[in-house]
Amino acid sequence: MERKKEIFIEILRLLACILVILYHSRYQIYEFISGGGKVSILGNYCLNACFVIGRLAVPLFFIISGYFSFPIKDNTFTFFKKRLTRIIYPLIIWLVIYTLCFSSPKSMIYDLAHATQAPHLWYLYALIGITLLIPMGSSFISNATKQELQLYILIWSLTLIFNGNFFDEFLTFKTDHNGMLFTNPITALISFYGYFGYILVGAYLRRFEVGKLFPIILMCSGCILVLILLAFGISMDKIIAYCSISNLFISVSIFILTKRLFEKLTINVFTTDYYSIFYR
Length: 280
What we know:
The chain is mainly alpha-helical. It has twelve helices and four strands. Strands 1-4 form a two-stranded antiparallel ribbon. Strand 2 and strand 3 form a beta hairpin. Helix 4 packs across helix 12. The longest helix has 27 residues. It is globular. The two termini are 12 Å apart. 22% of the residues are buried.
């Protein structure tokens, strides 16, 4: 079956992959620049830059996934069979490989059950959870008005502000009695918290257009917010966390700007009806 593939998505995927590599190899880059000794101020800036821009990769991947996730045309079980098998089988294989290679015989069963030797595969766990939610929201997300989606994205955005990254003690998600008792009003939004909001953003950007200046305003707002939070002594790890309002602003602006630059470029490809992780 022949279909058109949007070039801007391929560019975003490539960019996100490069950002992941930069993020996880930043210390090796630092060692290479320094030669094992002291590094210049410029080298320190390069190390920090790799950390900051590398954190944009995960939101970009989730936005791309949301861009292609709706509507679901198969029934739920067929959808799960096509999507989850592409995630779970490789996950199990690599969990076994890492456990066999790095665990002692005594702790092997425990390490396998708790994925002790493969914490870096966390993204696949998150993707499984998101995949389970997609069929539940498919009908609403595919038919919701622009204002309805904006409302839910706004509510989710609030959770990125009050999740403990910026305010340690003031109005953050806190529970008591093993998570069953909400201890402040913000905790009422805890059901909205997580990566699924990026899926909503991707679906929104596929269905609706935004203003011409919107991505520029969003990018500037994100960068200014980073500088303000740094001035207040908040660590960069929290400022640019995957679920943070500053990361949301910057990653969404990158997605929109890339789409506008390359959306008219397409290529014809031959494909089957089988799902990939990010494409149908």
